[in-house]
Amino acid sequence: MLVDKVLAKIFGTENERQLKRLAPIVAGINAKEPELQALSDEPLRARTADFRLRYEQGETLDDLLPDAFAV
User: Fold this and answer.
1) Is residue 57 helix, strand or coil?
2) Residues 6+ apart with CB under 8 A from 13
3) Among 38, 65, 67, 69, which has the highest number of CB atoms less than 10 A from its own CB?
């Protein structure tokens, strides 16, 4: 148990490591908010087709994740 506490102090807990890994993704999603708030429903719906096309052209789901979550 002492070893676990020492390792958690050095490397952080699993939750802290996950938060650190996800923070840049969340920042990217939040950065898109002003642009997307200005769009009406129809352009937002059109983004779905754009995501499919980008995926078919070889982008990974990880690449699409910030845009998809922002929309």
Assistant:
1) coil
2) none
3) 67
pLDDT tens track for 8-21: 778 889 899 999 99
Q: How many domains does the chain have?
A: 1
Domain that holds residue 6: 2-70
Q: What is residue 32's three-state secondary structure?
A: coil
In the three-class reduction of DSSP (H, G, I as helix; E, B as strand; rest coil), residue 8 is classed as helix
pTM of the model: 0.72
Q: Which of 71, 65, 67, 70 is nearest to 22 (CA)?
A: 65
* Angle in degrees, CA 53, 38, 47, rounded to 5: 10
d(CA 64, CA 13): 28
Q: Distance (Å, rounded) from C-alpha 71 to C-alpha 61?
A: 15
